[in-house]
Amino acid sequence: MKYSFMSFSCPELSLAEIFDLAKHLGYAGVEPRVAAKHRHGIEADASAATRAAAHQASIEAAIPLCCLATSCRYADPASTQENIDETLRCIDLAADVGSPRLRVFGGSIPESVEREQAIDIVAKALSAVAERAQARGVIVCMETHDDWCDPAHVVEVMRRVNHPNIAVNWDIMHPIRHSGATMDSAFETLRPWVRHVHFHDGATVDGKFALVPVGQGDIDHKRAVQLLESISYDDYLSGEWIGWEPYQTHLPRELATMKGYEA
Fold first, then answer.
1. What is the pLDDT of residues 46-61, one digit of tens each?
2. CA torsion sign, 250 to 253 to 259 to 263?
3. pLDDT tens for residues 161-204?
4. 72: domain range?
5. Do 155 and 122 form a contact (C-beta atoms < 8 A)?
6. What residues have CB less than 8 Å from 101, skipping those under 6 apart?
7. Residues 198 and 190: beta-carbon distance below 8 Å
8. Model confidence over 193-207: pLDDT tens digits?
9. Mean pLDDT of 75-104
């Protein structure tokens, strides 16, 4: 297994500092979140020089930019084309900085849009970016998130797109929390398309759902590791922790727990 973390853990750090942190802690990659005002500087409006410098810094640090996380989303017809255009820009950004993956969302479905129509809208949007993704060597991964936590809905999109550069970012928490799936059922449904994985644990505390250390919440990470090992998964598991503990606290602990499950 290869582990990375999203820049939400340390939005105040520069790209060089993030690489140093990853090397020090033993992470194999990092996942910059774009358009979130993080200090790493990898953004769709970054200059060619900034992109080239980020790529070179990644090579010199031997820490890949395993995925760029965007907020591109497609299910609302009022903004679908705008998000397609942004996805194309982000595909170019990912290729320029050496990232082979790009995370996108299906997006919230307006009340006026039926599920079947939404599936068609999202599938057409992803089809519209597939050739650019293939030409630039980037795989666009739709996350199990928001109104797309049910693995069956995501898979229907994948089947309609039917392109090797359109795949799934399996967030292992959301299908369990929001669609009633089990870890096994979500995996079995999604596994032909899984090219990136997000992990984080949580539990209901004082009536509210909150992040907790891996192994202390509702999400069976050990089982997720077992399932991914069963298909010799060789892409990244990326920790996504937003507005949580200081990175000095959670990054080393969560990695140690996940490696413990492997052992």
1. 999 999 999 999 999 9
2. negative
3. 999 999 999 999 999 999 999 999 999 999 999 999 999 999 99
4. 2-262
5. no
6. 66, 67, 68, 94, 138, 139, 140, 141, 169, 195, 196, 235, 236
7. no
8. 999 999 999 999 889
9. 98
- Kindly state the DSSP code that residue 33 receives in the 8-state scheme: B
What's the CATH number where 95 sits? 3.20.20.150
Contacts of 88 (CB under 8 A, 6+ apart): 129, 132
pTM metric for this prediction: 0.98
Torsion of CA 106, 18, 209, 73, to 10 degrees: -10
CA atoms of 148 and 151, how far apart (whole Å): 7
Backbone angles phi and psi of 210, in degrees to 5: -140, 155
The number of domains in the chain is: 1
With tokens 């194999």, the residue in question is 28
DSSP H helices, the chain, are: 15-25, 48-61, 80-97, 115-136, 151-161, 174-179, 183-190, 221-230, 247-262
Q: Which two tokens stand for residue 174?
A: 């959301």
How far apart CA 158 and CA 168 sit, in angstroms, is 8
* Residue pair 144/109 in contact by the 8 Å Cβ criterion: no
Rounded Cα distance, 91 and 236, in Å:
19
CA dihedral 23, 64, 172, 252 (to 10 degrees): 0
Give the separation between CA 228 and CA 96, rounded to whole angstroms. Answer: 29
**b/e sequence 47-66, b meaning 16+ C-beta within 10 Å:** eeebbebbbebbeebebbbb
Alpha-carbon distance 119 to 127, whole Å? Answer: 12
